[in-house]
Amino acid sequence: MYIKHVREVKEEEVNYEGSINAKIQWLITKDVGANHFAMRRFIIKKDGKIPKHQHDWEHEIYMLSGRGVVGIDEEEVEVDKDMFIYIPPNKPHWFRNPYNEDCIFLCLIPYK
Amino acid sequence: MYIKHVREVKEEEVNYEGSINAKIQWLITKDVGANHFAMRRFIIKKDGKIPKHQHDWEHEIYMLSGRGVVGIDEEEVEVDKDMFIYIPPNKPHWFRNPYNEDCIFLCLIPYK
Questions:
Q1: Contacting residues of A for B108, CB less than 8 Å apart
Q2: What's the pTM?
Q3: Which of A50, B9, B47, B63 is 20 to 30 A distant from A74 in Cα terms?
Q4: In CATH, which superfamily holds the domain spanning A11-110?
């Protein structure tokens, strides 16, 4: 059984250009045999952001704690704990955290 | 954008035979266009369980709150908040909650 706590996984800078105060942890990946989709955890700190971008794969997102703002197309929505989001492929989207608490969410993507 | 709160999604009984005090919410599915994998949320109440079973698809699990016991093959491990688990295809596994708090976790599965 592959079982861990998030504190055992290193936090890496989100390297999408223009990202600020945004970390990613790769929790479940092909490295442990998960060949269909990957589980990642994001931490966006106060005044952090991941700028508008798009790609041809979808996101399945679950808000773990804190609050944040998620944008898609031209719309922004405030999100908090226990909200979930489906972002279809090829939709421009972005994230920002204007609040004091860390905005923490899972974001899962398919392997293609 | 498809965005909801878990309180908007009905809780259904887990219908795997022998399950007790176990609920499932289907959060993100093919119904909203998610064709690669589905996001479900489980709530196992005090003394609840999902008995030992197996299938040819994997699980990616993230513990949201409470505590529980997850079994795989012949081994049991106690899990709590912010632990995550990869259960490979065809591995016998089960869940039980001997504690007072609800054991709540996400469990994602591929569409095959």
A1: 37, 39, 60, 108
A2: 0.97
A3: B9
A4: Jelly Rolls (2.60.120.10)
